[in-house]
Fold this protein.
Amino acid sequence: MDRREFLGGTAAIAGAAALPGSALAQSAEISFFYPVAVGGPITKLIDTYAADFEKANPSIKLKPIYAGTYQETIVKALTAHKSGTPPVTSVLLSTDMFTLIDEEAIVPFDDFIKTEDDKKWLAGFYPGFMENSQTGGKTWGIPFQRSTIVLYWNKELFKEAGLDPEKPPQTWAEHLEFAQKLTKRDASGNVTQWGTQIPSSGFPYWLFQALTTEADALLMNPAGDTTYYDKPGVVEALQYWIDLSQKHKVHPPGIVEWGTTPKDFFEKKVAMIWTTTGNLTNVRSNAKFPFGVAMLPSHKRRGSPTGGGNFYISKKATPAQQQAAFQFIKWITQPERAAQWSIDTGYVAVSKAAYETEAMKKYVVDFPPAAVARDQLEFAVAELSTHENQRVTKALNDGLQAALTGTKPAQKAMEDAQAEAERILKPYR
Amino acid sequence: MNSRATATIHGWLLLLPAMACLALFTHWPAVASFIESFYSTPRARRPARFIGLDNYQQMLADPIFWKAMSNNLWFAIGTIPASIALALLMAVWVNDKIVGRTWVRMAFFTPTILPMIAVANIWLFFFTPQYGLLEQIVGFFGGRSTNWLGSQDTALYAITIVAIWKEAGFFMIFYLAALQALPPSLGEAAAIEGASRWTYFRRIQFPLLMPTTLFVLINAVINAFRMVDHIFVMTRGGPDNATTLLLFYIYQVGFSFWDTAYAATLTCVLLALLALVAFVQYGILERRTHYR
């Protein structure tokens, strides 16, 4: 950053402080990393938003950069950060918050919240989403494209099995009972249709966290420096998952692939699936049978983790750029835009106000499943996120996969995972 | 300045761009990784400091590293001989005058030109339980359903098969080129002597193809340590590290865990392994492959 730029930035901040909420006089260019692997409808939407924002704020140039998957985007953003020219703002996984803080790559939003209007805006987001965006009393991320896990069920297969097609399972016991009725075997004992399936490839911890939440167990503390992988509730949740396939044989054995799970559902190879609300549009356009979307069954309570991406602002950007990025983030998360974004993509709208807009009300009437994710938010908890997040999560993933493939009993698998997580997290306490 | 010196300077100047590229993108990163492996990973508040062999000790105590090594060994044992044998077989076959051989050659070469990520997505559905292609074939013969990618016993075989399928066509091209360079008089002489097809292959074709086999072998060994693209799509190293190969683990440590120093340590091991393999192949095998 050269001196002139710095002075410009300082002047801009001073100006913004003097005239609260007003647009900046100085011009700023902000680069914006957005995770999308291939072009298509979503990049077009983002381009439209960028153009609209520039029209409303002529002094700011917004440059969206499509950076691949979440994993590729954070690799690019952190590499750019280390080389000194990071993107001013980026959408990255909410769970990467601790990693970004530890790398000193981001600034908290608190310094930009100045007016009553700003405060109201920040308070408008669903608390379930803010859990993964705040730590140590500060807000580090703003929810943008967020999701939760829901249960999709095939109404046709429910009818065939003699179940009420309009009634999804409400509890773990019911979920098992329905799955038993929905599992079909041929003469030689091969299963031709499974009752239920919970994907376990890649990131099994996320779906597992739905089970642990329902068993009323926590996986980590809010400070992100301690995990509770070996607590009784966690082991109980894992045992339920294992029993579905190994004891009751109503769930496919081994590791169930996340990517092919919707396809399994379309092919009627499985009657109920647990997957993200982000699959809503996919299922809606590809399922050739009536289907329902429900909250996950409860055990001791209802629950699902949240997932998805947050906006972050880079620490190494100039103050003027940071302020401009803040303005953009606030602009794009306004209720009308959040509602439209949710309708177009299937992501959950991030604020209550978004669900109260006319467009959203109409959409929910036409397509009631869209409201399920919203209603479940009341029970949603923060997605597993700690310091050294990916490494600590991998310890759990490995333990889960070992238990699900039958190489370790549930108790032992979770004890091993906890020991590994302890080793990694010790320096952060 | 005499003409000899000018020629030398010209020579070096011509080499310079390539040399600079190699030094910048190959030699320097290798040396830098080696140096970095003796330092701790720099964090925002803790700059890197010299820690001697700590990273190497951590590596020796890391069960996932050993798992990756043994996986990689089995992956190499699975892919190298199978893909070379298959390539040779296909090359001998499409070298003959058969109807539509251009089409067959093209079909065999197709896997090579397809991007690995796209191919892995297709194979993902081949291996899918219940309605995947493999399952349908097994099911037709009355076999039991298997979760190929989702079981620790079969996942490594599954990704090995994809690698063989991908590589064999590429190696076939080298064998085909070498076969076409063999003088036809050898084949005619063998026919006059009454040699069988098998004798002709074993006594004449195969020995004459030895330089090609060496070249292909080196490539196959390098690929056994380098081919990890399909793992990202098909298993992400799971279940429980059953398909984690060394290079995949390096990526994970470096770019998911951001433990760059440890990743550098693992990279050094990979480099040492490849150097050893190259040394054995060039130093020992090459001497035996020449013919008179």
Q: What stands out?
A: The two ends of chain A are 35 Å apart (CA to CA). The first helix of chain A runs from residue 3 to 18.
